[in-house]
Design goal:
The complex is a heterodimer of chains A (240) and B (560). Chain A has 240 residues and is an alpha+beta fold. Chain A has eight helices and five strands, in the order E-E-H-H-E-E-H-H-H-H-H-E-H. In chain A, the strands form two sheets. In chain A, strands 3-4-5 form a three-stranded antiparallel sheet, covered by helices on one side. In chain A, helix 1 runs antiparallel to helix 2 and helix 3 packs across helix 4. Chain B has a three-stranded antiparallel sheet with strand order 2-1-3. Classes of the chains: A alpha+beta (240), B mainly alpha (560).
C-alpha cells in the first residue's frame, strides 16, 4: 500500500481512503419491529463480498438478534461498499492537502472534543494508532472510545475524499496542466484545507501560538449516568 | 534554513544560561542542536526529499527542537504525544512519527517515569518553553519532616529539658522539632506583660491564664487586669541565664562549693543546686562541664557509683580533684609534677605503669588533665619536668602577674622559677628521678589542710594555662621521641635495602667469575683446535706442492 503513496509523484492520487490501510468506514443503523441495531466498523474493500453475509450472520447470532436483521445488515454493508467502489479508479486530488479534523463525539460516558491537522497525502497515517495513543495519553479506560475516534476520523477522511473526487474532476476541466507543487486554492478544492504557505512558509514557525493551543487540544469529559440519559433523550428528540 | 537558525537559537536561550545537565542514552550521542544527523535523515526521509512544502528540514528541526525542549522542561515526567501535538502545526501522523523517533532514541522520555497515568492533561496557557514550576514537582514526595527523629537521636537534650522543667513529662513518639523546642524558644524571649521588658531569670506567672509579669512589676503590685497576687507563682527561667547574665559568673568559693556538692551528691543536680544555693541547676551543670577536669570528675563519680563503698577509690579521686583546684605549692609546673607523683603512687599501689597508660589511651573522653597525665607518663620524667619548666617560664614572660604568683607561692623550689630556671629544673629532676617518697607522702596532708587555706591564691585560669602549656611541651617531647623512632626505623630499612643491593651485586660478580672460568677452560681447547687446523692446512698445501700446483695462489692464505 505504501508504494502507492510515493510522495514524489505529482500525479493525482486514485481514490481511496488516504490512510495506510484502505479501510472503509461502515455505519449501520437498522430498526426492525422496535428493535434498533446501531454499529460502526471498518471494512476492507478488497475482501470478497461473500464475507459480508457471513459477517452479518455471525453478528446476528452473537448479539442474539432476530434473523430478519441478517439481510438488512448485509444489504447495508453491501450498499456502502458499492458506493465506495464507485469512486475507485477516479483521480482524487492533486498537490498538498492538509485538513483539520474535528472530533466531537460521545462514547458511553466519555465526551471528547478535539481538533488536529491531517495530511491527506500521508499514506502512512494510521487513525487507529492515533486514537490508541490519544486514549493512552489521556488515560481513557473505556475500550470503546479508541475505535470510535478512529472511525470518526475515517468517516471524515472518506467524506473529504469523496468531495475531492468531484473537485479534482472539476479543476481538471478548468485548468489543464496546472497542477503539481503549487497548492490548489482552498475555495476550489472544497473542504476546509489549510493554507500551507501560510503555515509552513519560511516566515512562520510551526510552533502554534499560545492562544491556539486550547483549540487544538483534546478535551475529555466523563459524564455521569444521568447526564448520559439526558443527552440520549435529547438526541432522540432531535432525531425525530 | 536561515530562519530555522534564528528559531532554534531563540528557543535554546532558556537552556543555555543554566547549562542544565540532561541525560541521553549513549547511542544517541550523535544528537546535536545545530545539525540534523544522518540517522534522522534516514529515519524520517520524508522531510529531506523536498517533496512537500509541509515537510522540510527546517520544519523537522523545529518539530524536533520543540519536542525535546518541551520534554526538558520537566524531564522527570513523561511527555505524551497528545501534549505536544496541540502546540505544533502539521499532520498529526507525521508529528507522531517524529515523536516516536525521538522517543525511540531516548532524546525524550529517557529516564522519565513510565507511569501511564502520570499524564498532564491540561497545561495552562502560560506553560511554554520557559516554565515556572509551581508546587512540588512530580518526582518529589512529601514525607515526614526529618526533624521528628531529633529527640530520639539526641536524648540528652530532652533529658536536660525534662530535668530542668522539673516535670517528669515524656515526649510522645515521633515528636517534631517544634514540639520539643518551641517551649524553650518561647521562654527565651519571655517578656513582661506589663512593662514589656525581658523578665530575666525570675518572673511570675499567673496560674489562670499563663500571664507573665516580671519581678519588678510583681513587687510593685502591677498584676494586670483582674489578677491577684495569689494567682501568680514565682518561676525561674533557667534558660535566660547565659554568659551575659550575672548568674553565670562564678566565684572561686562557688566553684569549690559546686565541686564539693558534686562529689557528695553525684549527678543529682537538684541536690547540688540546693547545696550551691546561689546557682541554678543549669548553671551548675554548665560550670562543671566548662571546668577542664569536669569530665574526669564525672567519670570518677560514675566509677564511684559503680564501686560504691570503695574508700580507696574515693581518696584517689579526691586527689585528682584536689590536684588542679587546690594545688598551691608550685603552681602550674608543680601541678603537673604532683600529677606525676600521684600517678607514680598509683603505679606503686596498683601495678605496672604501662597497663595504666593503655587504659588511659582507650578512654577517649578523658579530660585535658587526664591527657596531660597520660602524655607526661609516656615521656621520660626529666623531659616532662623540662617541658613544664619551659612552659611556666614562657607564661611568666608573657605576663608579669603570674610571675609574681609563682614566685610567691613557690616555697617548694627556693629560687624563683624564672630567675633560676636551670636550678629549678635540676632540682625537679633530682626530686622526680629519686621518685621521692617523701613528696608523695607529703601530698595527702597538704591536700587536706594546707591547700585549703591557699586555694584561691592562684587563679584557676592561670593554672589551666600552665597545664596546657605543659601538655603541649610534653606532647612535643613525645612527638620528638616518635620522630626519632621513626628515623631509626627508616635508617634500618635503608640499611636493609643497601644490603640487599650489595647481595645482588655480589651474585652478579660471582656469575661473571663463573663465566670467566668457563672461558678460560675453553680457550686452550680452541687454541689446540687452531693448531690442528693449521697443521692440516700445511699438510694439504704440502701435498698440493707435491702435485705441482703454482705457489703464488696460495701464498696469502698461508700467511694468514
Amino acid at each position: 500500500m505504501k508504494s502507492s503513496a510515493s510522495p514524489h509523484s505529482k500525479a493525482p492520487f486514485k481514490f481511496r481512503i488516504p490512510t495506510a490501510e484502505n479501510l472503509v468506514p461502515i455505519r449501520l443503523d437498522i430498526e426492525i419491529d422496535g428493535q434498533r441495531f446501531k454499529d460502526a466498523f471498518t471494512w476492507n474493500p478488497s475482501d470478497p463480498d461473500s464475507e459480508v453475509v457471513v459477517f452479518a450472520k455471525r453478528t446476528v447470532k452473537d448479539l442474539k438478534l432476530p434473523p430478519a436483521f441478517i439481510t438488512q445488515i448485509a444489504q447495508s454493508i453491501q450498499s456502502q461498499l458499492t458506493e465506495f467502489r464507485s469512486f475507485e479508479g477516479q483521480d482524487m486530488y492533486t498537490g498538498e492537502k492538509i485538513i483539520p479534523i474535528k472530533l466531537d463525539l460521545r462514547v458511553n460516558n466519555t465526551l471528547i472534543k478535539d481538533q488536529f491537522l491531517w495530511d491527506l497525502n500521508n499514506y502512512e497515517s494510521d487513525p487507529e494508532e492515533f486514537s490508541r495513543t490519544l486514549c493512552k495519553d489521556l488515560g481513557i479506560e473505556d475500550p470503546e472510545v479508541g475505535p470510535a475516534i478512529a472511525f470518526a476520523i475515517r468517516e471524515q477522511l472518506y467524506e473529504i475524499a469523496v468531495q475531492n473526487v468531484a473537485s479534482a474532476r472539476e479543476s481538471r476541466m478548468s485548468k489543464k496542466g496546472r497542477r503539481g507543487f503549487e497548492h490548489v486554492p482552498v475555495s476550489k478544492t472544497g473542504g476546509a484545507s489549510v493554507d500551507l504557505v501560510k503555515l509552513f512558509g519560511h516566515r512562520s514557525s510551526v510552533v502554534r501560538k499560545r492562544k491556539d493551543w486550547d483549540i487544538y487540544e483534546p478535551i475529555v469529559d466523563l459524564l455521569s449516568n444521568e447526564e448520559v440519559d439526558a443527552l440520549e433523550a435529547k438526541e432522540e428528540r432531535t432525531a425525530r | 534554513m536561515e530562519t530555522s537558525q534564528r528559531e532554534t537559537s531563540y528557543r535554546r536561550v532558556p537552556d543555555e544560561p543554566e547549562l542544565d545537565l540532561y541525560t541521553i542514552p549513549s547511542h544517541s550521542s550523535w544528537f546535536s542542536w545545530d545539525e540534523i544527523h544522518e540517522t534522522e535523515k534516514l529515519a524520517l526521509k520524508e522531510f529531506f526529499d523536498g517533496s512537500s512544502i509541509s515537510r522540510t528540514p527546517r520544519i523537522y528541526k523545529e518539530y524536533r527542537d520543540f519536542i525535546i525542549n518541551k520534554y526538558r522542561e520537566e524531564p522527570s515526567s513523561r511527555l505524551t504525544f497528545t501534549e505536544i501535538r496541540k502546540s505544533l502545526v502539521g499532520d498529526v501522523n507525521l508529528l507522531h512519527k517524529v515523536f516516536i523517533f525521538l522517543e525511540t532514541w531516548g532524546l525524550i522520555n529517557f529516564g522519565a517515569t513510565s507511569d501511564d497515568n502520570d499524564f498532564t492533561e491540561v497545561e495552562d496557557g502560560e506553560s511554554s518553553i520557559i516554565k515556572i514550576e509551581e508546587g512540588v514537582p512530580n518526582g518529589i514526595r512529601v514525607g515526614a519532616t526529618p526533624n521528628s527523629v531529633k529527640p530520639i537521636s539526641a536524648p540528652p537534650a530532652v533529658e536536660d529539658g525534662a530535668i530542668v522543667n522539673g516535670s517528669g513529662f515524656k515526649l510522645p513518639p515521633l515528636t517534631s522539632y517544634s514540639d520539643v523546642f518551641s517551649d524553650l524558644l518561647k521562654q527565651k524571649i519571655l517578656a513582661c506583660g506589663n512593662c514589656g521588658q525581658h523578665c530575666g531569670s525570675r518572673y511570675h506567672q499567673c496560674a489562670k491564664d499563663g500571664y507573665l509579669i516580671c519581678k519588678n512589676c510583681f513587687n510593685d503590685g502591677n498584676y494586670g487586669e483582674q489578677r491577684l497576687s495569689e494567682d501568680f507563682e514565682l518561676k525561674t527561667n533557667e534558660f535566660v541565664e547565659d554568659s551575659s547574665n550575672p548568674g553565670a559568673v562564678w566565684t572561686e568559693a562557688e566553684t569549690l562549693l559546686l565541686l564539693e556538692s558534686v562529689l557528695k551528691h553525684g549527678d543529682d543536680w537538684e541536690l547540688v543546686a540546693q547545696n550551691v544555693q546561689t546557682k541554678t541547676k543549669l548553671d551548675c551543670i554548665l560550670k562543671l562541664v566548662e571546668l577542664p577536669f569536669g569530665d574526669s570528675l564525672l567519670c570518677s563519680e560514675a566509677q564511684r557509683n559503680e564501686v560504691s563503698g570503695s574508700t580507696n577509690n574515693l581518696t584517689s579521686e579526691k586527689e585528682i580533684t584536689d590536684a588542679p583546684t587546690n594545688n598551691q605549692e608550685i603552681a602550674g609546673s608543680e601541678d603537673q609534677c604532683t600529677k606525676d607523683i600521684n600517678e607514680d603512687k598509683d603505679e606503686e599501689n596498683q601495678g605496672p605503669p604501662k597497663r595504666q597508660c593503655t587504659a588511659y589511651v582507650q578512654d577517649t573522653s578523658s579530660s585535658l588533665m587526664k591527657q596531660v597525665a597520660l602524655i607526661s607518663s609516656m615521656v621520660g620524667q626529666h623531659i616532662m619536668a623540662a617541658a613544664a619548666t619551659a612552659s611556666v617560664t614562657a607564661l611568666c614572660d608573657e605576663n608579669l602577674h603570674p610571675k609574681e604568683i609563682f614566685d610567691d607561692q613557690d616555697f617548694f623550689v627556693p629560687n624563683g622559677l624564672c630567675s633560676a630556671a636551670s636550678t629549678t629544673t635540676n632540682h625537679e629532676i633530682e626530686r622526680i628521678l629519686n621518685n621521692d617518697d617523701s613528696v608523695a607522702k607529703e601530698r595527702p596532708p597538704q591536700s587536706g589542710d594546707v591547700m585549703a587555706e591557699d586555694k584561691d591564691d592562684i587563679p584557676l585560669i592561670l593554672r589551666v594555662r600552665a597545664a596546657i602549656a605543659t601538655a603541649l611541651g610534653a606532647a612535643a617531647a613525645r612527638s620528638k621521641l616518635l620522630a626519632d623512632q621513626e628515623e631509626r626505623e627508616m635508617e634500618y630499612l635503608l640499611a636493609i635495602m643497601i644490603e640487599t643491593q650489595m647481595k645482588k651485586m655480589q651474585r652478579k660478580i660471582k656469575h661473571f667469575e663463573d663465566l670467566e672460568l668457563i672461558m678460560e677452560t675453553e680457550c686452550p681447547v680452541i687454541e689446540e683446535l687452531e693448531d690442528k687446523l693449521l697443521m692440516e692446512r700445511v699438510s694439504v698445501l704440502q701435498s698440493a706442492f707435491d702435485l705441482g700446483i703454482s705457489r703464488w695462489k696460495d701464498y696469502p692464505s698461508v700467511r694468514s
